[in-house]
Amino acid sequence: MAQAHFTAELLDELNLLCLYNLDTSQEGIKVHSNAASEAVAAASRLHAKGLVTQADGGYLTPRGREAAHYAQELAGLLDPAELTT
Questions:
Q1: What DSSP state is assigned to residue 2?
Q2: Gap between the Cα atoms of 51 and 81, Å rounded
Q3: Integer distance in angstroms from the first to the last C-alpha of the chain?
Q4: Is 27 left (phi over 0), alpha (psi -120 to 50) or beta?
Q5: Interhelix angle for 62-78 vs 8-17, to 10°?
Q6: CB 68 within 8 A of CB 25
Q7: Is 57 left (phi over 0), alpha (psi -120 to 50) or beta?
Q8: H helix intervals, the chain
Q9: What is each CA distance from 72 to 2, 62, 81, in whole angstroms?
Q10: Are 71 and 18 in contact (CB under 8 A)?
Q11: Considering all CA atoms of the chain, what is the largest pairwise distance in Å, rounded to the nearest integer?
């Protein structure tokens, strides 16, 4: 099996997934057209992958909710502040 790694594009997508509030399914995000080009492109890729409902963010799909959960959990596990607790 090939060794997996995070590309800059995947990191942009993970960062965007970390912005979602997983406590509710009634809250989405909007990536405005004047946002950083990386965020705009990441939102579009997440939409193409079926993880969010709109090309500019929107709501998480069921699969997107799962991805956001794992992204946020991984970010928490790798956060140096979390490692000392």
A1: P
A2: 29
A3: 34
A4: beta
A5: 100
A6: no
A7: left
A8: 8-17, 37-48, 62-78, 80-83
A9: 24, 15, 14
A10: yes
A11: 40
- Residue 29 is encoded by which pair of tokens? 């995000």
Per-residue pLDDT of the chain (85 residues; tens, 9 = 90+): 677 899 999 999 999 999 999 999 899 999 999 999 999 999 999 999 999 999 999 999 999 999 999 999 999 998 877 655 5
Looking at residue 28, the DSSP 8-state letter turns out to be: -
Q: SS3 for 21?
A: coil
- State how far the Cα of 69 lies from the Cα of 18, in Å rounded to an integer: 8
Its sign, for the CA torsion 56, 59, 63, 66, is: positive
Place of tokens 């090309």: 55
Closest by Cα among 42, 36, 50 to 16: 42
